[in-house]
Request: fold
Amino acid sequence: MKPTLLVLAAGMGTRYGGNKQLDQVGPSGETIIDYSIYDAIRAGFGKIVFVIRRDIEDQIKERFVDKLKGKIEVDYVFQEITNLPEGVTVSPDRTKPWGTSHAILVTEKAIQEPFGVINADDYYGVDSFRILRDFLVDDKDPNNYCIVGYKMGNTLSEHGHVNRGVCGVENGLLKDIVETRQIERTETGAKAPGPDGKDLIFTANEVVSMNLWGFKPSCYTFLGGEFRNFIDKNGMDPKAELDIPTSIDKFVKNGEITIQILMSNEHWFGVTYREDKPFVVDSINKMISEGVYPSKLY
Reply:
């Protein structure tokens, strides 16, 4: 069975200032998602599942569902703030989804096979999808997952701070993962505000997660239990979110799951900020000139 690719496309695009998932960066109107799907198809994925908001349903249908007919199976699932465990109480002021961990959970009925997870607004690179696909097909341990990791320095924006899951690695396996916010490049590496008020200093060679995950269906049990705990504690906070690294961390530490770190030498890029877009456009055009992509994908 071919693996599925889950595309997280329900984000609000707050820092970018608009619906960045559908912003055009290719010469024929392609979005970053188009390039990811193109890479996934040629890597050997069999289905694409989008997690979206209802207000972009028509745009997703128009841009992707019809265009990809005959090329790959496409489905989509809504991430809504009302997708909750029974009997919980949450803030009536809630306006945004519950985070990336919740985004995976809402797809449980749509995915029964091993699957990869990507952000809609991140470019991961051709080889990264091949690495991910090979793991999902070849690895048979139902509780062994993976992260395609990147060097931190290959993932930073020149136009502001970013959030990254910084990975501790031991013998090729994830030891821990810390969601680190407001990382920015420096002359000697990178830095981020620490919990004690002092800066965390990085060499920029650290391994980070860009939400390029490989999961087995068993993850729904782990993530579901952790999301229930999160809602019980934070349901009345109108802004609280549960991200994938935070959900996974404790199951790694107590030995219930293992996560392999599969390194990619690709340079990540994305449109975290509107000022990032010219670099993305230039990078795509360069790859087209080098023959990595055709000038018109579909």
Observations:
- The longest strand covers residues 173-186.
